[in-house]
Please model this.
Amino acid sequence: MPQVGDAFRAAADAYLRMGLTRGVPSLFVDVRPLLGDGAKAACLQQLVEGYRDSLKRWERGGGNKLRFSKVAGAQGALGARVRVRVNREKPCKG
Model:
Protein backbone atom coordinates (compact mmCIF):
# COMPACT_ATOMS: atom_id res chain seq x y z
CA MET A 1 0.00 0.00 0.00
CA PRO A 2 1.38 3.46 -0.87
CA GLN A 3 2.48 5.68 1.97
CA VAL A 4 1.42 9.28 2.50
CA GLY A 5 4.04 11.97 2.79
CA ASP A 6 5.22 13.70 5.93
CA ALA A 7 3.52 16.90 4.79
CA PHE A 8 0.09 15.19 4.66
CA ARG A 9 0.63 13.52 8.04
CA ALA A 10 1.68 16.82 9.67
CA ALA A 11 -1.24 18.74 8.15
CA ALA A 12 -3.75 16.04 9.10
CA ASP A 13 -2.36 15.88 12.64
CA ALA A 14 -2.64 19.65 13.09
CA TYR A 15 -6.16 19.74 11.62
CA LEU A 16 -7.45 16.81 13.70
CA ARG A 17 -5.91 18.14 16.92
CA MET A 18 -7.47 21.55 16.34
CA GLY A 19 -10.88 20.03 15.59
CA LEU A 20 -10.81 17.67 18.56
CA THR A 21 -9.59 20.36 20.95
CA ARG A 22 -12.34 22.73 19.88
CA GLY A 23 -14.98 20.01 19.69
CA VAL A 24 -15.82 20.61 16.03
CA PRO A 25 -18.91 18.46 15.39
CA SER A 26 -18.37 18.35 11.62
CA LEU A 27 -14.80 17.03 11.85
CA PHE A 28 -15.70 13.62 10.41
CA VAL A 29 -17.64 15.23 7.57
CA ASP A 30 -14.59 17.38 6.85
CA VAL A 31 -12.20 14.41 6.57
CA ARG A 32 -14.63 11.95 4.94
CA PRO A 33 -13.44 12.70 1.36
CA LEU A 34 -9.93 11.61 2.39
CA LEU A 35 -11.16 8.17 3.43
CA GLY A 36 -11.51 7.09 -0.20
CA ASP A 37 -7.71 6.94 -0.44
CA GLY A 38 -6.52 3.86 1.46
CA ALA A 39 -3.15 5.34 2.44
CA LYS A 40 -4.71 8.56 3.75
CA ALA A 41 -7.42 6.63 5.59
CA ALA A 42 -4.77 4.45 7.25
CA CYS A 43 -2.80 7.54 8.25
CA LEU A 44 -5.91 9.18 9.75
CA GLN A 45 -6.71 6.00 11.62
CA GLN A 46 -3.18 5.81 13.05
CA LEU A 47 -3.39 9.43 14.19
CA VAL A 48 -6.80 9.02 15.84
CA GLU A 49 -5.83 5.78 17.56
CA GLY A 50 -2.65 7.49 18.78
CA TYR A 51 -4.75 10.29 20.31
CA ARG A 52 -6.96 7.70 21.99
CA ASP A 53 -3.99 5.84 23.45
CA SER A 54 -2.41 9.08 24.63
CA LEU A 55 -5.64 10.12 26.35
CA LYS A 56 -5.91 6.75 28.07
CA ARG A 57 -2.35 7.07 29.40
CA TRP A 58 -3.07 10.63 30.50
CA GLU A 59 -6.22 9.53 32.35
CA ARG A 60 -4.32 6.76 34.17
CA GLY A 61 -1.80 9.40 35.24
CA GLY A 62 -4.53 11.43 36.99
CA GLY A 63 -5.45 13.86 34.19
CA ASN A 64 -8.47 16.13 34.23
CA LYS A 65 -11.45 13.73 34.00
CA LEU A 66 -13.93 16.29 32.63
CA ARG A 67 -11.67 17.35 29.75
CA PHE A 68 -10.71 13.74 29.02
CA SER A 69 -14.36 12.74 28.72
CA LYS A 70 -15.19 15.57 26.31
CA VAL A 71 -12.18 15.06 24.04
CA ALA A 72 -12.27 11.26 24.17
CA GLY A 73 -15.93 11.27 23.18
CA ALA A 74 -15.26 13.32 20.07
CA GLN A 75 -12.14 11.34 19.22
CA GLY A 76 -13.86 8.04 19.86
CA ALA A 77 -16.67 8.91 17.49
CA LEU A 78 -14.24 9.93 14.77
CA GLY A 79 -12.06 6.88 15.35
CA ALA A 80 -15.03 4.54 15.12
CA ARG A 81 -16.16 6.15 11.88
CA VAL A 82 -12.68 5.97 10.39
CA ARG A 83 -12.36 2.28 11.28
CA VAL A 84 -15.82 1.48 9.90
CA ARG A 85 -15.12 3.32 6.65
CA VAL A 86 -11.66 1.79 6.21
CA ASN A 87 -12.99 -1.72 6.78
CA ARG A 88 -15.84 -1.46 4.26
CA GLU A 89 -15.38 -3.01 0.85
CA LYS A 90 -17.65 -0.53 -0.94
CA PRO A 91 -17.51 3.26 -0.38
CA CYS A 92 -20.41 4.92 1.37
CA LYS A 93 -22.77 7.08 -0.58
CA GLY A 94 -24.13 10.10 1.05
